[in-house]
From TrEMBL:
It is found in: Cell inner membrane; Cell membrane. Residues 25-147 form the Tripartite ATP-independent periplasmic transporters DctQ component domain. GO terms for cellular component: plasma membrane. The keyword Transmembrane applies. This is TRAP transporter small permease protein. Keywords: Cell inner membrane, Cell membrane, Membrane, Transmembrane, Transmembrane helix, Transport. It holds the Pfam family DctQ. The keyword Cytoplasm does not apply. The complex comprises the extracytoplasmic solute receptor protein and the two transmembrane proteins. It is a multi-pass membrane protein. Part of the tripartite ATP-independent periplasmic (TRAP) transport system. It comes from Chelatococcus asaccharovorans. The chain crosses the membrane at residues 12-33, 45-66, 87-111, 123-140. InterPro entries: DctQ.
Length: 164
């Protein structure tokens, strides 16, 4: 069940991030072609591209958590006795989950404030909070993944050799 949950969430996030980056690419191409070929500019296209890149970037945080690919200090890895290695890794995942869940709570407070105050995007004037929802989601998703890794370490991918 945990494996299926992890796989489904990760696949959904990967598809959403890919679509976000594709939309960013199309928007920027339309903007450049419009300016260079037709000598006209479309109001707000660059801002939309920035918002799309922000969405894709935060989803990238969750994908890095899925792949165990976050940059981290490896200094203490050599100090951990082999018999405690699995316990320390599980503890690390629990601490990471607590960090990400705390971040999600703080980010949700930010989004709630944005909802209450009715913050709008400059130039385009749409409400910002729907786009901002990706921020607490990304932190909560990364926290959930670390909890899954703590519960079942076999689901955690091996750390990339290039990361350490």
């Amino acid at each position: 069940m945990l494996r299926a949950t992890l796989r489904t969430v990760t696949l959904t996030e990967a598809i959403a991030a890919t679509i976000s980056y594709a939309v960013v690419a199309v928007i920027l191409m339309v903007d450049v072609i419009g300016r260079e070929v037709f000598y006209t500019s479309f109001l707000g296209l660059q801002q939309l591209a920035v918002y799309g890149a922000i969405i894709a970037g935060f989803l990238g945080l969750t994908l890095a958590a899925s792949d165990n690919a976050h940059l981290r200090p490896a200094l203490l890895d050599r100090l951990t006795p082999p018999r405690l290695e699995q316990l320390v890794q599980r503890l690390g995942d629990v601490v990471s989950a607590a960090f990400f869940f705390s971040g999600a709570w703080i980010c949700w407070s930010f989004v709630a404030h944005s909802m209450d105050s009715g913050d709008r995007a400059p130039v385009l004037y749409f409400l910002l909070w729907p786009l901002q929802l990706v921020i607490p989601y990304a932190f909560a998703s990364a926290g959930l993944k670390h909890l899954i890794f703590a519960a079942d370490p076999a689901l955690k991918p091996a750390a990339s050799e290039t990361m350490g």
